[in-house]
Amino acid sequence: MLVLSGCRPTSTSMSATPSPAIHTNRLIHEKSPYLLQHAHNPVDWYPWGPEAFEKARQEDKPILLSIGYSTCHWCHVMAHESFENAEIAELMNRWFVSIKVDREEHPDVDHIYMSAVTRLAGQGGWPLTVFLTPDLKPFYGGTYFPPERRWQMAGMRELLPAVAQAWSARREELVTSSEQLTAALQPPAGPSASADAITPALLEAAFNQAVGEFDAAHGGFGAAPKFPRPHELSFLLRYAARRGSAQARQMAETTLEHLARGGIHDHLGGGFHRYSTDAEWLVPHFEKMLYDQALLALAYLDAYRLTRRPLFAQTARGIFEYVRRDLTDPHGGFYSAEDADSEGEEGKFYVWSLEEIRQALGPEEGARFAEAYGVTAGGNFSAEGGGGKSILHLPQQINETQLASARQRLLDARSRRLRPHRDDKILASWNGLMIAAFANGAAALDEPQYLDAARRAAAFVWERLTREDGPLDSARDRGERAKRVEPRLLRRYRDGEARYPGTLEDYAFLSDGLLELYEAGGETVWLSRAVELAEAMIQQFWDEEGGGFFLRDKEQEPLIVRAKEIYDGATPSGNSIAVGVLARLGRLTANQRFEQLSRRALEAFSAPLAQAPFGFPQMFSALDFALGPTQEIVIAGPPSDAGTQRLLREVRRRFLPRAVLIHKASTEADPVESLVPYVKTQGMVGGRPTAYVCQGYVCALPATSVEALAAQLDHTAQPVGAP
Questions:
Q1: What pLDDT score was predicted for residue 248?
Q2: CATH 3.40.30.10 region(s) of the chain?
Q3: 530-543 residue pLDDT tens
Q4: Which residues have CB under 8 Å from 241's CB, separation 6+?
Q5: CA atoms within 13 A on the CB side of 227
Q6: What predicted TM-score, i.e. pTM, was given to this entire model?
């Protein structure tokens, strides 16, 4: 392993003055907003691909791999300090082949090298900086490096010569280190599955670990910085429903309430910022990510269905209005993110001085608003522009409807500010999450406009990011093309270009979104497409030997590691969502193969699930469904019939985490019967829309009234065992 103290920099007389923007490198031909941000660096950047790899091999140079994304604050800092600096760039160009990667376009690449840096440095993050051998094996790395040594952190002026000297003088040592690290990153050899381990005891262990990490004062888990991780809250709500646990429910409610009142919540524009720098959820890192909006909306909707608290519905509506207004393409797809910075300052777009509030609202109303939202003369936020600015938050509960007009006027005033950069690429996976959220919002809140947003996004992704044919990024015999299951997903769409083979999370997240869209709207086409994607996912990513799914399509050229990701971090893992999708689709369609593969994946991951259960909350939500008991709910009746809609609303408004919903719309042969054959005999009774509540495909008496249906649903929703 490289030790910097053993090397001395060869040059110390460098200016910190950034070079003029007179350079253009290969990134100018890319579509990624992140790569385009670096297209005029003096660094001779290459995108990830064979041209860069071949250059490194031919010139026998190590690779400097830099991974980030366009709305990453510290990525901007490192770019300005180092990559725009002509002298630092000259060192990079002299000694390295430099590759820039947008982690959102290449999550498989990011996963491998983030895992490597976490092993090397004990932690990871973005920007990610990794030094590789010409055969792409990592031997040294970290995250943000300043230009000069700072905070006991090596600076680029010291680091680059040190790595170059080590490559020249201690090549064999570095290569050996890279091979050892690469071997350590490989998945465990041989099967580790345990059918006996997949029991409700795992759910208990995950809950108990959550209790130990819970911040009872402010909600959330652990110390600052604190991330919402809404799939943890969704797991707690499912556990509360399964066990009747008041403690699990209270933990989730407390967290969601503090999030809604905190500065991490955009009280004017709706939606949530990335994370909080403090334990109280007051001072956020201001970037806004699409996946956070989707996952938090789902958690708030789950909580609303379980508790009927208006705050949770109101917060979810705010998220949806933000995404519709600011993150939606005119043709329906959802954009990826908004930056934390504007005009060179983090948070400038979002914070307010007391005087700005008074000018916008007038002295009297301004004073009332400032008191309610914690705006003071001294402020609570310090940035590059100085103090005196406040992050809006709610120190005490208020009746927010009384200040709705004031919030709208401030939102109008804020809209005249210079907005942060928006990353307008459209990712299949994150769109799948947001489709699921809008579909759930339509069902839980009875909002047709949310269903329309989900439909438009699903149609956008299906039209622009699926293909039936086309070149493969693979060295295998192209004759195998005829064997594969359609459709094939591409990952990213931007500026008229769809590119990059979809990863596991693209297939899993989109299939899940389409399944939710089917249950919310009853249109069989979305169920059919969810099944198609699940079949394609199995063919392209399933590990026949070890169980579970690889992150990268098996037809693509392999990377240095055949990664399987199960940790549920900022987003759920592809495996966690895939396990849940297969379990639900299997139960809905009576496809035993889907359920068997879901179970086999759970068994394959049983060891890590037992070791650190609360690291996999989305997987445990899937396990909750797989363990059952589950319900199959069939509503038979024309969609336009008011009676049909009343029955559907009764189901959709409830928190039923272990249920699937089938809508049989026609009294004649219905298209859904080809996918769900057991509904052929379940029709209307006496010419009236009818509900069937089944458990293990054994159904209660048909219900033709909302009251009868509600009684059956209440009976099947009883807790399983004692809390």
A1: 98
A2: 4-185, 629-723
A3: 999 999 999 999 99
A4: 306, 655, 657, 717, 719
A5: 16
A6: 0.94
